[in-house]
Amino acid sequence: MATIEQIDRSRVPQHVAIIMDGNGRWAMRQQHQRLFGHQNAMDAVRAAVEAAVALKVGYLTLYTFSTENWNRPQDEVDGLMELLITAVHNETKTLMDNNVRLQTIGDRGRLPEKSRRVLEGCIDQTAANSGTTLILALSYSSRWEIAEALRQICRQGLKPEEVDEDTLRRYLTTRDYPDPDLLIRTGGELRVSNFLLWQMAYTEFYFTDLLWPDFRHEHFYDAVLDYQQRQRRFGKTEAQVEDEAANAK
């Protein structure tokens, strides 16, 4: 297990995104219903946020509830919405104490009114914080986001020749944030599940079999340490990257 002392603080990823997978399987292994896994995932969320704060990661995005999750059994959806309210209410003081700003991406209008009200209260209360920005992807999917961006572009009446990559980026829900440098996915699955597809064009992926409720600080450090062993070339040759690194010294 990695420790924080092993991390090169000069090469910490600016933006880490996490697909928090494995809650249901974790609960079933404990011989409980799926919601029990979601309830016990809060310690993992807290650990991830604390590790990001300790490393001064600028942005941490958690895939909290996808648009596809609305298709789950109604009692599980209702339980998740209640859990969201409780978690945000209970963690607001901790976010304030750690100078963390809360934001969301996704179709927030689909959330129950009570969930929206509690979320918006926490967003307002933490708005002036200047440390890590915690972004909850709620009622979010990348295909929805891109389709919504295109709808907005069409409403603006832009001509085809006026639309380029920068145009589309300005209409995405993530327009105010840098693209993720590192994606962590727990639960052993090797896919991105309709999450930040546009934004992860050059993201480094880190997959672990660990189920999300068992995730702790050291697992976050493991992922960052693995990230720091990689060379990010962005289409350049290895020699070009090494020359740039040498000239930057």
What features would you describe in this structure?
- With 249 residues, the protein is of the alpha/beta class.
- It has one domain: Decaprenyl diphosphate synthase-like (Undecaprenyl pyrophosphate synthetase, 3-Layer(aba) Sandwich), CATH 3.40.1180.
- The chain is 44% helix and 14% strand.
- The chain has a 6-stranded parallel β-sheet, with helices on both faces.
- α3 crosses α8.
- The two termini are 31 Å apart.
- The mean pLDDT is 94.
Question: What is shown here, in short?
Answer:
The chain is an alpha/beta fold and 249 residues long. The protein has nine helices and six strands. Helix 3 (42-55) crosses helix 8 (217-228), helix 4 (74-97) packs parallel to helix 5 and helix 6 (142-155) packs across helix 7 (165-171).
Helical run tally: 9
- Under the CATH scheme, which architecture would be assigned? 3-Layer(aba) Sandwich
Helix content: 40-55%
* β-strand amount: 5-15%
- Overall CATH class: Alpha Beta
Helix-strand pattern, N to C?
EHHHEHEHEHHEEHH
- Main β-sheet: number of strands, strand sense, barrel status? 6 strands, parallel
The global form is: globular
Structural class: alpha/beta
Stretches where pLDDT falls below 50 for ≥5 residues? none
* Major beta sheet, strand line-up: 3-4-2-1-5-6
Question: How many strands appear in the DSSP assignment?
Answer: 6
Please compute the radius of gyration using only Cα atoms: 19 Å
Average pLDDT number? 94
**Tally of separate domains:** 1
* Distance linking N and C termini: 31 Å
Can you tell me the CATH superfamily?
A: Decaprenyl diphosphate synthase-like
